[in-house]
Amino acid sequence: MKIIVLAGGLSTERDVSLASAAGICNTLLEKGHDAFLLDVFLGLENAPENLEDVFTLPGHGLEIAKNISETEPDLAAVKASRPDQSDCFFGPNVIELCRLADMTFLGLHGGEGENGKLQASFDLLGIRYTGPDSLGCAVAMDKGLTKQIFMEAGVDTPSGVCLYKEDSDCSLESLGLSFPVVVKPCSGGSSIGVYIVNTEDEYRQALKNSFRYENEVVVETYIKGREFACGVIDGKATSSDRNHSKKRMV
């Protein structure tokens, strides 16, 4: 199959996306597919005259995932590096290449790549892609909305509330919560902006830090225990994997 692996973008998880998508692309190549790694925002400026040739280019686009920094990406610099200086989310030749592909493998993390907007655009353009549809992405990406759905369905979930910037002066006691709690942006992932806090000072600092990423955060009771991730494909759960990370963000 001819497969575009879409990565990068303009979310705070840009570098996480590039690293994981490079692994996906390599695996697809090992399986015998004609895969190409493509940055959704930067696109492919100097593409071959025949775009079909992209799928057999040496390097398969993997050079964009080299020398990834461990620090937060400089999104202003990413925008400035785009030759056409367009603010369009889709870079040069991205739509054209995705339409040529038999499948677009979404390796995007956060932002428009996971909140349903890209999926809705692809639905309108007739582009086939991996993962949930636009509605599923929009709901799952919003932690506050997902939490509300869990509660209405009777699914156990930690006690918690959503806060907006204008409510950031609310005390934990007024929210009906007590330490320790978790503070995190309402959308996003990769543990960016997530804090486990045990004191009032830590709580205030965590709110300040999380509000750097968006205007809504979730504050909920911290549940100590092991963390497992379980994928669902075609309505069937795959085997669960334990998250072995011992990093504790405070």
Q: Which stretches are low in confidence, meaning pLDDT under 50 for 5 or more residues running? A: 244-250
How many strands?
11
CATH C-level name of the largest domain: Alpha Beta
For the terminal residues, how far apart are their CA atoms? 44 Å
Put simply, the count of helices is: 7
Quickly give the CATH architecture of the largest domain.
3-Layer(aba) Sandwich
Largest sheet features: 4 strands, antiparallel
Work out the strand percent: 15-25%
Structural class: alpha+beta
- Assembly state (oligomeric): single chain
- The percentage helix is 25-40%
| Total domain count | 2
Task: Explain the layout of strands and helices.
Layout: E1 2-7, H1 14-30, E2 34-39, H2 75-80, H3 94-100, E3 103-106, H4 117-125, H5 134-141, H6 143-152, E4 160-164, E5 181-185, E6 195-197, H7 200-210, E7 216-221, E8 228-229, E9 232-233, E10 236-237, E11 241-242
Helix pairs in contact: 4-5
